[in-house]
Amino acid sequence: MAAIFQGVGAAATLSSSPSNSFVPKKFLTSPRRSFSVRKVPSYVVVRSDGSVNFDLNSKSRRAQQLVANAVATKADSSAASSSSNPGHELLLFEALREGLEEEMERDPRVCVMGEDVGHYGGSYKVTKDLAKKFGDLRVLDTPIAENSFTGMGIGAAMTGLRPVVEGMNMGFLLLAFNQISNNCGMLHYTSGGQFTIPIVIRGPGGVGRQLGAEHSQRLESYFQSIPGIQMVACSTPYNAKGLMKAAIRSENPVILFEHVLLYNLKERIPDEDYICNLEEAEMVRPGEHVTILTYSRMRYHVMQAAKTLVNKGYDPEVIDIRSLKPFDLYTIGNSVKKTHRVLIVEECMRTGGIGASLTAAITENFNDYLDAPIMCLSSQDVPTPYAGTLEEWTVVQPAQIVTAVEQLCR
Amino acid sequence: MALSYLRSSSSRSANLLRPLSSAASLRRPISTDTTPITIETSVPFTSHQCEAPSRSVETNPSELLTFFRDMALMRRMEIAADSLYKAKLIRGFCHLYDGQEAVAVGMEAAITKKDCIITAYRDHCTFVGRGGTLLEVFAELMGRQAGCSKGKGGSMHFYKKDSNFYGGHGIVGAQVPLGCGLAFAQKYSKDESVTFALYGDGAANQGQLFEALNISALWDLPAILVCENNHYGMGTAEWRAAKSPAYYKRGDYVPGLKVDGMDALAVKQACKFAKEHALKNGPIILEMDTYRYHGHSMSDPGSTYRTRDEISGVRQERDPIERVRKLILSHDLATEKELKDIEKEVRKEVDDAIAQAKESPMPEPSELFSNVYAKGLGAESFGADRKELRATLA
Hints:
Pfam families (chain B): E1_dh (PF00676)
Cofactor (chain B): thiamine diphosphate
Structural class of chain B: alpha/beta
Subunit structure (chain B): Tetramer of 2 alpha and 2 beta subunits.
Oligomer: heterodimer
Largest interface: A-B, 41 and 46 residues
Protein name (chain B): Pyruvate dehydrogenase E1 component subunit alpha
Catalytic activity (chain B): N(6)-[(R)-lipoyl]-L-lysyl-[protein] + pyruvate + H(+) = N(6)-[(R)-S(8)-acetyldihydrolipoyl]-L-lysyl-[protein] + CO2
């Protein structure tokens, strides 16, 4: 099924996809940024498999128009959704809460389990006031027993409930690894399709501000080999809410990776119901010279580097891959075919990270289109140190991204 | 022989030893008197599957004054850490122990440095009790080189190998199997020492605890599991997290003892009893009924899930330092002024340590890659600037 949207002021049309359609036709370009500058209408065809065909003439024009808005700023209120629907501004954790609340209202089978999610309101306030609204049986304060309550969530999901299990910090879910791997991931297969596990496992991870080694872990690299699960990483309030809702509606187990440092990002999001495709990547900034693939917090380091790169005359294409398992090789592939150079910027450690898998996937599928070896910038293979300066050197910094692009484009 | 020393206002009892030098009036008097005093704990012990120890605790003036000084030092240190955190010199997570000092101090009084202690992330005072210096504490909290973990661990990762302090752990409950492992090693090497594995009421619901307890009981390990029950697991009260908040009974076949954790003498008695028990009969659980004045960590106000009245009530009635102060004064072991002088001295010590810690430099960049592996294995590390800089750990 293909849908044709008119380009002008299309932000409203974009977000008002029919609410019961499971796979929304979301544009790859973020509505606020692209269409506010658009003067000439163009036709875009969006297909049900998520592929998008752009009108060729408009593509280069759009790229030129977008250079001015190269950086993903935190409060982009000036380029808000079109005048017909102003939307509302909120922080990322509020967007997650909104998504969760709307799904809980919509489907009585959705429940939340986690430590201090109920009466305390959540350690990052994602579940604030939900217990007051939905009661103790739907927003459950668990004891500190991750292995058990994750297992219980999976068990409940086997019967048809749709639990959202929160790990207070992703690192704590290591205690539940057996449940996630063996039960969550494999039960649908080993039961020959009898059981579906519509569970959402979410929590903040990533390197924060001096939280110490055990609280700065990036579990996406450990979970990525588990067959049967889907992994997504949110990075803006818009996609946080969209991915949360899509994850809850999905019949498959989804692990939603949030980031400790992104909870206070502010953005204006549409008022109406929308979801984000779980398997789709997000085009943050179209470009011509190099494809930069990133996700979660590193997206902001990349966009900061993009500012410098643009001043130096480069035109990077930035894609937030969002879907960590499976990769959106369609969007990524199209980009590689266009730019022929790939830089991956991630927060995982170099060994066995998402970047490592992505490098392998791109090399296998698009080797002929590459003009240079894929560069992958990752965090150092060390436990995250506490000292601030050391912690800074552990993760990828914008200056390193600029250097890498310069090396790649030589 | 004890010397009597006449002070300006009151006469001292004969059993206090005073320094003779003329500058004595400026220097804090140190009581080294070890004449035994017997004091009854205010609350009796409750036991499970064993006979409770006597309520009468043997102590002496020197020990009581040490308790006072050590607890005052710990209290002052934690309050100073609070201010440093608010000044953004300490970042990330910082879990303060004020209110619970009696557990650390009482335990140390009952054991030697050959016995092992392992605890969770509320470890600053336990570290000091094991012999850690204030400089090491503050430098580590600020991420400096002079810290006990060279600035790489942070608040939740304090360790001191030479005095058998095994940390310092961030993941709730994970330290208990480690502690039982320490006990296993002690039994293996037959050195007549025990391990105290501390955990909180929140961690008491972790499965790994019961697994470790079962194995310890099976193998007769000298493991003492100490539940520091401050009644709240971050924001969740104990009755909302545990079907049975009688943590000392949860070992079932493992004996347990419930102790007033705000009474350093009761803690000392219980730990002494537990050590004797563990060396003969295997694991035992101690539940320390204690309280934390601060929230769970510096990012938790601590007042959304409990009332301010409750906090100030405990502070007025059960504060461990006040209890020892009253004991000292009622037994005439020191004057109020002397105790206040101790507190002033302690405050100065803490301030000096903070100043010194601030002088300590941040770790060198190369420290990022050191201690990932033990040296001598040819492992490689990549440089911080990603420009092909490789350090082969030869």
